Amino acid sequence: MVSLRFLLAGLLVIFVSSCANPELDANRSRAREVLRRVASDTFVDASTRELALVRHKPSGLECVAPITGGFSLEVFPPTATHPGVYCARSEGEVVSSFVAVFYGATVDIDTAFSQALAASAGQASPQPWTGEPSTADKASPDGLPHFRISRFQANVNGAPSYLRVAMAEAKGWFLQQVVSGPIADAVQIETDAGADWRRALAAFAEHVPDPPP
């Protein structure tokens, strides 16, 4: 016969396990709601205790579904020349977006980055931002893909703004981050954007699949 002591111990383990990760449960719930709306089997829930995340399986891009603020997630249509995915979120006056596009070996990162800068900063009268790069950007690469980053003071929607554009490439996929917000908050935006880029870059490096044969 199972002793009462062991039975109680087992019940305690079950109870603790079910209550140990309320943050994770909340983030998974938010991610599942995003997946329900998108209704695409190309995404999976990749949430952690810290963040609600959805991962695009073909590219390895992980998008944050924020607790508050706007959020959008879109897969490129089948008619697109290159497959890809886009997600964006707004928190206060800060807008952050990620794009992953597959170009294969037909495009090099410097060409792609130049085109990204022209598209995002070309019409915004940009000037180089002279502040310090984030701690995350200055950290050791730890085997992550090489990347390019430019930071600007620019006019975005008629307002003086901080604008950051980052890009990396792995296995033919190009990962791009664009972040903008009030120039008065540039230091904090850069700090947060650097940490967000490091997170996304690590997930991209780990999960981006090999190109098709």
List key phrases describing it.
alpha+beta; 7-stranded antiparallel beta sheet; 213 residues; 34% helix; 5 helices
| Mass-distribution shape | globular
Number of domains: 1
Beta strand count? 10
Counted by DSSP, the helix tally is 5
Q: Terminal Cα separation, in Å?
A: 59 Å
- Spell out the helices and strands N to C: HHEEEEEEHEHEEEH
User: Helical residue percent?
Assistant: 25-40%
Mean pLDDT: 89
Q: How do the strands of the widest beta sheet line up side by side?
A: 4-5-6-10-9-8-7
Structure description:
The protein is α+β, with helices and mostly antiparallel strands and 213 residues long. The chain has helices spanning 4-19, 22-38, 109-121, 135-138, 186-207; strands at 43-45, 53-56, 62-64, 70-75, 84-91, 94-102, 127-128, 147-156, 159-170, 173-182. It has one domain. 34% of the residues lie in helices and 31% in strands.
What is the element layout, followed by pairings?
Elements: H1 4-19, H2 22-38, E1 43-45, E2 53-56, E3 62-64, E4 70-75, E5 84-91, E6 94-102, H3 109-121, E7 127-128, H4 135-138, E8 147-156, E9 159-170, E10 173-182, H5 186-207
Summarize the structure.
With 213 residues, this protein is of the alpha+beta class.
